[in-house]
Amino acid sequence: MQRAALTATGVYTAPYVISNEELVAAYNEYARNFNADNAARIVAGELAACPESSVDFIEKASGITRRYVMDKAGVLDPQRMRPRFAARRNEELSLQAEMAVAAGREALAAAGRTGAEVDAVICAASNMQRAYPAMAVEIQQALAVERGYAFDMNVACSSATFALDIAVNAVRCGTARTVLVVNPEICSAHLAWKDRDCHFIFGDVCTAIVVERLDAARSAHAWEVLGSKLATSFSNNIRNNAGFLSRCEDRDPDDRDQLFVQEGRRVFKEVCPMAAEHMTQHLASLGFTPLQVRRFWLHQANLAMNQLIGRRLLGREATVDEAPVILDEFANTASAGSIIAFHRHNTDLASGDLGLLCSFGAGYSIGSLALRKC
Ligand code: COA
Question: Which ligand 1 atom sits closest to the C-alpha of 156?
């Protein structure tokens, strides 16, 4: 068995920023228009009025202050409330592939590798813009990855960690020497921007990670993968029913269940203990305790969630140095969140330091990787 390492990362940041103030102003205008247009039915008790949102609530409930998006005008247009993307011809690079190629190039350059040295590309994200051919194969071609294989996979918010587990095992077993994992998350396209309970949650981004044989690593900041642990447990509390059967079910694309839906409180209550227990058990299986971990790169959905998990792991508050936060700036970027935290906050640590990367989300799904700085 070979030893495997995460040797470099890249992040493509979406081009537009939406502050909470801008978001709430657009949403509230939509809500007022809705209430005016439906005044008679609301007064008659046939329809619930659309309540207004608030910046204070969003910041207190989530810790999110802004998000990056691939399109801003469509989202903030009270008549539209969803991004607007131009359809691309088959000859053009598709949107998710474009994000992934940018993040992938950055990661490969940081690893000191070219596409020609990559054996496999895994495109892992919560949503794919088409069914086939796989986005990953298009990305493979665009990055001039001349050999090997590429495929897409989706484990919602745990897509990146589950893909890393596959990449690490491929490197360990010798199926591949170098694997590129990319996570193009366009969460703005599955978000119900008209729903006050969740309209602030998501942002767009793409992350990329290079997984290689440790003995071949060229990067100055390689992290040996000591172990990975995946877990799933079925729950309806985070769900999106949109799929290829929707048109056969004669669904209205505006049906609420054709976008992201969650029971936020339940998710919070159920996932925090599961995630803390998962990480503790994972570390114990490798002979460590949470207190020996120098840094946790946690899934970035909600600040209070991460603080609670930190307390469960350490028996006290985790500092931002121990569990860095990026969700204030990026919001929830599904599977990419913990990777952005890793990308931004790993080069300052010393050789021998222990780190734990962990995602948690729909499924439920939890994936963790224990890492040691080389
Ligand atoms: N502005 C103002 N008030 C709002 C609001 C908004 N945007 N959204 C909800 N409210 C109101 C609710 O209507 C509710 O009012 P009520 O008490 O009169 O019923 C109150 O604020 C509390 O709402 P609730 O949904 O219970 O808030 P919360 O404290 O649970 O926070 C989340 C909401 C979504 C931030 C939080 O539940 C969460 O982050 N959960 C986990 C999310 C997660 O990890 N999901 C994974 C996604 S992949």
Answer: 48
The residues that bridge with 228 in the sheet, in sequence order, are 369
Question: Could you tell me the distance, in angstroms and rounded to a whole number, from the CA of residue 264 to the centre of ligand 1?
Answer: 6
Mean pLDDT of 307-334: 97
**Count of all residues that appear for the chain in the document:** 374
Task: Decide: 101 and 212 in contact? Cβ < 8 Å.
Answer: no
Strand stretches in the chain, DSSP E: 4-13, 16-19, 66-69, 120-124, 149-153, 178-186, 204-213, 223-232, 238-239, 261-262, 295-298, 354-361, 365-373
User: From the alpha carbon of 299, which atom of ligand 1 is closest?
Assistant: 44
255's CB contacts (< 8 A; 6+ apart) are none
CA distances, 85 to each of 42, 95, 122 (Å): 34, 9, 24
Are 195 and 27 spatial neighbours (Cβ–Cβ below 8 Å)? no
Residue 151, ligand 1, Cβ within 6 A = no
Q: Ligand 1: which of 27, 240, 262, 265 to mutate, most ligand atoms within 8 Å of CB? A: 265
The number of helices, as runs of H, and strands, as runs of E, in the chain is 11, 13
Q: Is 157 a catalytic residue?
A: yes
What is the C-alpha separation between 96 and 98, in angstroms, rounded? 5
For 83-119, how does the pLDDT look when each residue is reduced to its tens digit (9 = 90+)? 999 999 999 999 999 999 999 999 999 999 999 999 9
d(CA 149, CA 141): 10
**Is the distance from CB of 176 to CB of 119 less than 8 angstroms?**
yes
Answer whether 16 contacts ligand 1 (Cβ < 6 A).
no
- Quick check: CB of 262 below 6 Å from ligand 1? yes
Q: Is the pTM of this model over 0.85?
A: yes
Whole-number Å distance between alpha carbons of 197 and 215: 49
CB atoms closer than 10 angstroms to residue 258: 17
At 173, list the tokens.
């077993």
**At residue 64, what are phi and psi to the nearest 5 degrees?**
-85, 130
Considering only CA atoms, give the Rg of the chain. 21
- Whether residue 252 is predicted with pLDDT greater than 90 in this model: the reply is no
For the record, the structure tokens of 222 come out as 């390689």
Give kind and range of the element (H or E) at residue 197.
Answer: none
